[in-house]
């Protein structure tokens, strides 16, 4: 007998979250791991996610994104603070909260002993669907995610991109209110990543709210209505990608890679006086020149940096990564 969560008709699936003003509400969330070294993974995070949003948690590896998602999806208990999903406290009522939640973790968790169809079918059965409902829903999902021809395949026979599509299909099979995606494009090739993006954006039509974690700034920029930038377990900024760029003055960054840094500080001081240059920073073997636009500056920068053995020039257009650098002084991918 399959375990059931207390309802058997699709009409009985949880719907109260749809009428909530806030689907995900996180307040003063903290997670501390005690041991030889005390580690604060999440340090007082506050955020809320509205119905129908695609909300991104953006930050480097180890920033606290996955821990936050683990608490929100009832897999980890917080040290303090609270998380509510569609109004349900995930600590006080974890089983009820899970009725509203779909989860795609970082790693492939498909049952390798089952076919793709069976992975979907038994997920539906676990959530109370009858045999006929589970069969119909599984067929719908296979068609929606362009997987019908692979229904009899096993997870080991799928590429990373196809397996990720199956995981998303399975996660929304019971029609959750919110879908949590933890680093959804990690390890995917560019083509599979684009297919995954399209699948996520298509979830809007079903009224599913999406919360995703990522350390790819282009992914957060492309998918998210709003983004929260986190680092060292703390919230640094929150808003739409465009609003964050405007608020924090995201600028074009010109990276000048140098052979010699002996006189780099004096060159940086000189460059700071040039029209259009907002700031210059030393970074390992390079100078970072922050400007409102590279046009007309490149010739001056090349001449100024040539005595230091200029090796390479790279231009980064305004992005969420430049916002992150403005906030923390370090690269997002570090």
Describe what this molecule looks like in 3D:
The chain is an alpha/beta fold and 334 residues long. The protein has two domains: 236 residues, Rossmann fold; 67 residues, 2-Layer Sandwich (Alpha-Beta Plaits), CATH 3.30.70.260. Helix content is 31%, strand content 26%. The strands form three sheets. Strands 6-7-8-3-9-10 form a six-stranded mixed β-sheet, sandwiched between helices. Strands 2-1-4-5 form a four-stranded antiparallel β-sheet. A four-stranded antiparallel β-sheet has the order 12-13-11-14, with helices on one face. It is elongated. The termini are far apart.
Distance between the termini: 48 Å
Look at the structure and give the CATH class of the largest domain. Alpha Beta
- The total count of helices amounts to 11
Taking pLDDT < 50 over at least 5 consecutive residues as the criterion, the unreliable ranges are 1-18
Q: Averaging pLDDT over every residue, what do you get?
A: 85
The CATH topology name of the largest domain reads: Rossmann fold
- The proportion of residues forming helix, as a percent range, comes to 25-40%
Shape descriptor reads: elongated
Please identify the structural class as seen in this structure: alpha/beta
